[in-house]
Design brief:
Rossmann fold, 2 domains, 46% helix, 7-stranded parallel beta sheet, single chain, alpha/beta
């Protein structure tokens, strides 16, 4: 039997990138999936068809009521992966206040609302796995990313509090902190850098990585997914409140 058979996993921001990699890994381990994220109806339909047992909820996770409704409609959530996030970059003095509010709502507050919604049922079953996708920027900072860095640092603090409040139960809460991961969004950054500076794609990739990621290689959504599956296992039952980097040595510097 697959290790996560009969478990239900809700993964926010799972229609592409890291979230989709995590969803596929959990499904391969046997979990039923609730997918959430943006996409055109035809794209969502095709995505659902690629899973054996998954359905889609288009909740806007920047809105607390929709987060709660998503959990209610799921009925049962054994594994919650808070992955959805947005980014905006600007110097602090020029940072639009509405973008600050949006980044904090989606990258941090949505985690709180989802965790609050799932915890009562997890406590009744005395089993649950909460995995928050933070970032290397939850551990270190970069300029022009005030809202994102603040939100991801907040995610790690929230992770620790939930871990302490559930420490004597069968529920665990941990955070994964990816560095550069090769997703469609990052590929667009490589393409733009290549075009802007008339570089080959390989050189653009090297320049993007060299400032932060000593390995010189991207992490992959599949690697993040594999770690998520491990955190759901019995072998990880005493990993609680951890911030686990997958960052090619970024935060080791």
């Amino acid at each position: 039997m697959k290790p996560l058979a009969a478990r239900v996993a809700l993964v926010t921001g799972s229609t592409s990138g890291i979230g989709l990699g995590i969803a596929r890994a959990l499904a391969e381990a046997g979990a039923d999936l609730v997918l959430n994220g943006f996409g055109k109806p035809a794209e969502i339909e095709a995505l659902l068809a690629s899973f054996t047992n998954a359905h889609y909820d288009g909740a806007d996770i920047g809105k607390p009521a929709e987060v709660r409704q998503m959990v209610e409609k799921a009925g049962r959530v054994d594994i919650l992966v808070n992955n959805a996030g947005i980014q905006h970059t600007a110097p602090l003095e020029e940072f639009p206040e509405e973008r600050w509010d949006a980044v904090l709502a989606i990258n941090l507050s949505s985690n709180f609302h989802a965790i609050k919604a799932v915890l009562p049922q997890m406590r009744r079953r005395n089993w649950g796995r909460i995995i928050n996708i933070a970032s290397a920027h939850g551990l270190v900072a970069s300029g022009t990313k005030a809202a994102y860095v603040a939100a991801k640092h907040g995610v790690l603090g929230l992770t620790k509090v939930v871990a302490l409040e559930t420490a004597a139960t069968g529920i665990t809460c941990n955070a994964i902190c990816p560095g550069w991961v090769l997703t469609p969004l990052v590929q667009r950054q490589i393409d733009e850098l290549s075009k802007r500076h008339q570089l080959s794609k390989d050189e653009a990739k090297r320049r993007l990585l060299e400032e932060k990621q000593p390995s010189g290689e991207f992490a992959t959504p599949e690697q993040i997914g594999a770690l998520a599956v491990f955190l759901c296992s019995e072998g990880a039952s005493q990993i609680r409140g951890a911030a686990l980097p997958v960052d090619g040595g970024w935060t080791a510097q």
